[in-house]
Specification:
By secondary structure, the chain is α+β, with helices and mostly antiparallel strands. It contains 15 helices and 20 strands. A hairpin with a 4-residue loop joins strand 5 and strand 6.
Length: about 475
């Protein structure tokens, strides 16, 4: 097979050829097409687009959008390719706009800002900024791309100090549905677009560059500990105490996951702890240090090193659901109980044992939303919730589409059971759902609250009057699908 784009593009690509983009087009039978399609992290996303177009610049993205809109051709948008559900970043029979070549990271020493392409992966972003002694509040996993992560809000190692990743974005370069390229920032004529891009996903245009605030890079302290599952009754209380104590330590972050991972010998608790100020063994983790452990690798390190600790293996069908609830140890304990039931079901169903499950508990203290408001605000709606919260990512990863069909209702049942229990606690359910962890059947945009939904509707109507990113770009969570 050739490594160059096919000379006879498919009918869906004729409009792109007419727009002068033939050299950017990949079609089935082309080795590069196969390589790009297989590079999606999750098997569910490996659909069969009629062709892939790989723009080299915002101008070429604009040309592609104008051509596709003129032809009424359905399309998908791919940045890093890490979103796990079918149709979110790829499309059967349509055109996938692959932003993988828009992957540059540039640092401006004069403004201390970073200019980041949507196709850049966080491992490369951190590497480039490290050359200048700088860092951004970005992703916590190496292979995740900038585009989807930032447009979904983005939970970071720095969220207690700076808010979500989107709160540190200072400007967006955006290709609109009519092909115009605009810059949206807090003070310009597109300030309304700037606001809704902070969590509003792909409803308004294609972001071709993010300008982010940077911070001095310092060594961090962190790592992970693997512990036996029977620590959970004590660990639930320790997690709750950590969240409550966030105001005393804005630089420490926690991600604790109950897991069934064959490579770790079965069911374990993995505790990822980091302090981005480089404080060794900070008091925030004292309760966890008293718990038995199998192994740990806590040390002075770099952000690039700790990215690997949250990585999940590729080439599975990954079923994710999310939920946020009040910081309450009893809800964590209930989640632990229901997780064990899910794992038992999977052990019975998957005869060869080739599956993984996890439920990750991630603090969402009030400090996060307070920092967001201080930075100018976003559309996530967390500032409307009056309690410290915990967000979960529930996952079951399997090898076949048939098992994925079986797994989805199982994970959904687990998360619904946690939600029902949380309802029994005063203020127990936090409405907000994290877009980057959500299943396509979850009502993410609705969870942002009516005021933010209205802001997104108005921006979508203003910047995409023809509803291009609702009709022709079906992937993602759509504002047009929100019902009052």
């Amino acid at each position: 097979m050739s490594n160059t784009p096919a000379s006879e593009p498919c009918p869906q690509a004729q409009c792109l050829v007419a727009a002068g983009l033939q050299s950017c087009i990949l079609t089935p039978g082309n080795a590069k097409y196969t390589e790009r399609n297989e590079s999606y992290w999750c098997n569910s996303a490996k659909l069969r687009p009629a062709c892939i177009v790989q723009p080299h610049s915002a101008v070429e993205v604009a040309a592609a959008v104008k051509a596709l809109v003129g032809a009424e051709q359905a399309f998908a948008i791919r940045a890093g390719g890490h979103t796990n559900w079918a149709g979110s970043n790829n499309i059967d029979g349509g055109v996938t706009i692959d932003l993988g070549l828009l992957n540059e990271t540039k640092y401006d020493a004069t403004t201390e800002m970073a200019h980041i392409g949507p196709g850049a992966k966080w491992k490369h972003i951190y590497d480039e900024l490290d050359k200048h002694g700088r860092v951004v509040a970005g992703g916590r996993e190496a292979e995740v791309g900038a585009g989807g992560f930032l447009l979904g809000g983005g939970n970071t190692f720095y969220s207690a100090r700076y808010g979500f990743a989107c709160d540190t974005v200072l400007a967006y370069e955006v290709v609109l549905a009519d092909g115009h390229i605009v810059t949206a920032d807090a003070d310009g004529q597109h300030a309304d677009l700037f606001r809704v891009l902070k969590g509003g996903s792909n409803n308004f245009g294609i972001v071709t560059k993010f300008t982010m605030r940077t911070f001095p890079r310092v060594p961090i302290w962190g790592g992970y500990a693997v512990r036996p599952m029977d620590i959970m009754p004590a660990a639930a209380k320790a997690v709750a105490n950590f969240v409550t104590g966030t105001s005393k330590d804005l630089d420490s972050s926690l991600n604790i996951s109950i897991c069934h991972i064959p490579r770790f010998g079965g069911s374990v608790v993995v505790t990822i702890c980091n302090n981005v100020a480089g404080v060794e063994n900070p008091p925030a983790f004292d309760e966890f240090r008293k718990m038995p452990e199998v192994v740990n690798n806590f040390q002075m390190t770099t952000i690039q090193e700790v990215l690997a600790y949250a990585s999940l293996p590729p080439n599975y069908y990954n079923i994710w659901y999310t939920l946020s609830f009040k910081n309450d140890a009893s809800i964590i304990a209930k989640a632990y109980e229901l997780f064990n039931q899910l794992t038992s079901k999977a052990q019975e169903k998957v005869a060869d044992g080739d599956f993984t499950t996890h439920c990750s508990f991630q603090p969402i203290p009030r400090e996060y939303s307070q920092q967001s408001v201080a930075a100018g605000g976003n559309v996530l709606g967390l500032d409307q919730y009056s309690h410290d919260a915990i967000m979960i990512q529930a996952n079951l990863s399997v090898r076949t589409p048939e098992l994925a069909d079986w797994a989805r209702p199982q994970v959904r049942e687990m998360v619904e059971g946690i939600r029902k229990f949380a309802e029994s606690v005063d203020g127990g359910v936090c409405p907000w759902l994290y877009l980057n962890y959500a299943s396509p059947d979850q009502k993410v945009l609705e969870s942002y609250g009516k005021e933010n939904v209205e802001k997104m509707r108005k921006a979508a109507a203003k910047y995409d009057a023809g509803g291009v990113f609702q009709r022709l770009c079906p992937g993602g969570f759509k504002i047009s699908a929100v019902r009052d």
